[in-house]
Amino acid sequence: MAERKYEEMLNIRTTGLREWRNETHYHRYEATPYKALDELFKVYKLQKDDEVVDFGCGRGRVSFYIHNRFKIPVTGVEVNDQTFDEALDNKRSYRYLASDIEAPIRFNFALAEQFEIEETDTVFYFFNPFSVDIFKQVVHNILKSVEENERSIDLILYYPTGSYKRFMADHTPFKLINKVRVPDAQDKKEKFLVYRLA
Ligand SMILES: C[S@@+](CC[C@H](N)C(=O)[O-])C[C@H]1O[C@@H](n2cnc3c(N)ncnc32)[C@H](O)[C@@H]1O
Questions:
Q1: I want to staple 155 with a disulfide (CB 3.0 to 4.6 A). Which of 10, 12, 189, 195 is the partner?
Q2: Are 67 and 96 in contact (CB under 8 A)?
Q3: CB neighbours of 131 closer than 8 A, spacing ≥ 6?
Q4: Quick check: 88 pLDDT over 90?
Q5: DSSP secondary-structure letter at 128?
C-alpha cells in the first residue's frame, strides 16, 4: 500500500523530517517507510503476548502500524517535545478509528537511555535514533531487565550502522536471527536486522 494510503487508513500524519539543532548524539526524525515495515512483517511475526517498545518513536508510525496490525501493547519513547506532541495528536486521531483494539498504545516523553523497561516488554525497535554511545546504555538497560526478569526478547534494527552492528556482535549475547532487505532499496543500510536473546 502507498504511504498516503497507510496514513489515511491509520488516520495519522507521520511523513517528513525534523532535524535537531546543535545536537550530535540525537538523530533526526524520519519515519520507517511503510513498504519496509510490510517487508519485515512478511517474515517476522509478533506473538500475541509480545509487548513492543519503539526507542525514538518520533510521530509514532511504527507504534501505530504494529498496534493496528498485531493488536498488542506498544510503547513509544520520544524526547523531542514538538515531535512528541505530534505523536499524541496522532494517537487521538488514530484512536478515533481504532477504539475497538483493547491493547494499550502509549507514548512516553523520555530519554531512551533513562526509560524504565517493563518486565513484560519483549521486542525493542530502533531506527537509527541516536549515537552508539546512547544505544549501548539502552541495550545495557534491556539486558539488566532480562537479568531481573528472565524472558526471551528480540531487538530489531532498521538502517543499522556499522557501529551498532559491531557493538551487537562483539559486546552482547544477542544472536542475529534474520536479515530483511527492502526491495529496490538504493542504500545498502535500508534493511532490518533481527537479534534474539533466548
Ligand atoms: C529516525 S527517527 C525514527 C522514528 C520511528 N522510530 C520510526 O521508525 O518511524 C529517530 C527519533 O529518535 C528520537 N530521539 C533521538 N534521541 C533520542 C533519545 N535519546 N531518547 C528518545 N528519543 C530520541 C528523535 O527525536 C527522532 O524522532
A1: 195
A2: no
A3: 24, 25, 26, 27
A4: yes
A5: S
Q: Where are the domains of the chain?
A: 3-15+27-197
Atom of ligand 1 nearest to the CA of 54: 6
**CATH number of the domain at 3-15+27-197, please?**
3.40.50.150
CB 60 within 8 A of CB 90: yes
CA of 130 to the centre of ligand 1 (A): 7
d(CA 17, CA 188): 21
Output the ligand 1 site: residues, CB below 6 A: 26-27, 29-32, 54, 56-58, 61-62, 77-80, 83, 111-113, 127-130, 134
CA distances from 42 to 11, 21, 37, 125, 127 (A): 23, 37, 9, 17, 19
| Distance of CA 56 from the midpoint of ligand 1 (Å) | 3
Please give the pLDDT value at position 18.
93
| 23 pLDDT above the threshold of 90 | no
Q: How far apart are CA 41 and CA 33, in angstroms?
A: 13
Across 175-196, average pLDDT: 96
Whole-prediction pTM value? 0.98
